[in-house]
Write a structure and sequence with these properties.
Length: 330
Amino acid sequence: MKQNTFKTIKFLSFFILGVLLFWWVYKDQDINRIKSILTNEVNYFWIIVSAFLGLLSHISRTIRWNQIIEPLGHKPRTLNTFLAVMIGYLMNLALPRMGEISRCGVLSRYEKIPFTKLIGTVVLERLIDVLVLLLLLVLVVVTQFGQVLEFLKNNPEVEEKLGNILHSPILPIGLVIFLLILWFTRHKIRASGIAKKVIALFNQFIEGFQSIRNIKNKGAFIFHSVFIWFLYYLMIYCVFFSFEFTSHLTPWAGLTVFVLGSFGMVAPVQGGIGAWHFMVIEGLALYGIDKADGQIFALVAHGSTTLMLIIFGLISLLVLPFVNERVENK
């Protein structure tokens, strides 16, 4: 009962935070102008292309995840893995980071793979994604240095927070204290029954995490790791051509907006709502796009992606039991 109450409070907290951020971004927007642009000025062909590219990226992620899982001695059906990935994205819209747990739970149930091992593979996936995103950030900083400085100038609170994180002694001191506590209590911890269970689960987790060493086709793995993010980038860049006011922007501008938006998705709110919009609007402003136009762009780009995830996520929820029932009855 207490656990359900905590989950409910957590969900509502993140949801309210997202709504407040969204309201703050759009509180001064003219609703009639938004309706007029959505009705008369948006080229929806590029929105459809963007959604299609998004779907391709999820297929690519499915293939890569299967590559990570196979060294563990399991070969899940591609369809099941894809459905699990789409359900995971749907769950992320309900609660941040719930998607990773959900897709592992789905695949564990229908493919009989230990849940903890799957969590290890997902953590590995996320670390690779963070690495790619950081490389893209470096690329943006190097090629668009002037725009990055302009962003920090327009958002001094971001620069201040980055400085505080880099210079704060709290993190290293806290880490040292934590490690000292672990060292002096290590014998008691090892002797406890709970510790033995935790160690067993941790070993399964490490096995899943280390599966990268035994991936058969490493070339294909690297390709998909890059291809996923290339498609993510094309998703947002395609939307540039849906509006007259962004159609002239260069691919480099698209990369800058994409990277800033990606960091907005890290915020602990459902689907990056509010935070993603803010980052994209600020990114477009670096290239002379009016704030009101940037707000409409962000609304359409985020809305179309979210709608695609909801549709395919719900379809996956409906299809998954029937697909596996038919296979089990053969």
